[in-house]
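4.2 Preliminary Data

To establish feasibility before requesting continued support, the project team ran the inverse folding procedure on a target of 143 residues. The structure was first converted into the token representation described in Section 3, and no sequence information of any kind was made available to the design step. The complete token record follows.
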């Protein structure tokens, strides 16, 4: 059972991080896209954000089960650090993508400013995901 939970945990981490790489080339294309093509790109962004959110639920739940089965306490440095970063990222993700995507769907928007904001959010969120991944993989003794 433990091995299957580790497998589910790793797959959910891959699925929650991986699709963001597809969005990187789309940032440049968002600058000039119009009409249906623009909405297709925006729909792709929205899909990746939702996919990451839902696989994040699986990731957290499987992580909690792994913690419980292994008997690791919350005070383990890399677990505590990961949860601190996780909770910070939840607030960030809630405000980073959806409002900007909604504004980009409106007819009179400042596209250059919004795409730049979306790009910053994308790179920052990927950095946060990699920090959490690093904590989980390297399991550093932070204190």
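Position-by-position output of the design step:
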């Amino acid at each position: 059972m433990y091995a299957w939970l580790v497998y589910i945990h790793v797959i959910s981490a891959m699925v929650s991080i991986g699709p963001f790489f597809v969005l990187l080339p789309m940032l440049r294309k968002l600058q000039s896209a119009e009409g249906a093509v623009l909405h297709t790109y925006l729909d792709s962004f929205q899909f990746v954000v939702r996919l990451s959110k839902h696989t994040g639920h699986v990731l957290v739940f499987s992580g909690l089960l792994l913690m419980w089965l292994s008997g690791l306490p919350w005070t383990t440095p890399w677990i505590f650090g990961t949860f601190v970063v996780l909770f910070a990222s939840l607030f960030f993700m809630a405000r980073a993508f959806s409002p900007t995507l909604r504004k980009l769907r409106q007819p009179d928007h400042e596209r250059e400013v919004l795409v730049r904001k979306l790009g910053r959010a994308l790179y920052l969120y990927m950095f946060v995901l990699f920090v959490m991944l690093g904590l989980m993989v390297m399991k550093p003794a932070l204190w």
